[in-house]
Amino acid sequence: QVQVVESGGGLVQAGGSLRLSCTASGTTFSINAFGWYRQAPGKQRELVADIGSSDITSYASFVKGRFTISKDNAKKTVYLQMNSLKPEDTAVYYCNFFIFAEQRNYWGQGLQVTVSS
After folding, report:
1. What's the angle, vertex CA 79, arms to CA 78 and CA 83, rounded to 5?
2. Which of 41, 46, 63, 85 could cross-link 115 (Cys pair, CB 3.0–4.6 Å)?
3. How far, in Å, CA of 37 to CA of 110, rounded?
4. How far apart are CA 92 and CA 5, in angstroms?
5. β-strand 77-82 against 33-39: which pairing, if any?
6. Distances 49 to 7, 20, 80, 81, 116 between C-alpha atoms, Å
């Protein structure tokens, strides 16, 4: 049974930083791709950043230069370092990862990130 545990959300003032973590457990398969998504109230879920098995990363334009995604394959953990946070970054952030051997995506439970002005 694959489990996904996220941590690191919270309340921060504009200009501050937060680091989100997401760890997968219960699988012996490698994680092939990780991603962070977010969903603000009344809006659709959107991709924030992702990182593949070859460590190639991509970012949404609205976080480029402020957020950094990284991973630790041995720990099956992905991180999202968020700097220079803005009130418009307020959302629930979700971790997502894909296991190629299972041809399946998994989602975390979501982390509330609130940025006050």
Report:
1. 160
2. 85
3. 9
4. 14
5. unpaired
6. 17, 12, 8, 11, 22
Burial label, 32 (beta-carbon count in 10 A; 0-12, 13-18, 19+): middle
Burial class (CB in 10 A: 0-12, 13-18, 19+), 54: exposed
8-25 residue pLDDT tens:
999 999 999 999 999 998
Tokens linked to 87: 């009130």
DSSP codes of every residue in 14-36: TT--EEEEEEEES--SPP-EEEE
Tell me: the pLDDT tens digits for 79-117?
999 999 999 999 999 999 998 998 999 999 999 999 999
Cα 50 from Cα 87, distance rounded (Å): 22
Task: Output DSSP code: residue 84.
Answer: S
Mind spelling out the 3-state secondary structure of 32-68?
CEEEEEEECCCCCCEEEEEEECCCCEEECCCCCCCEE
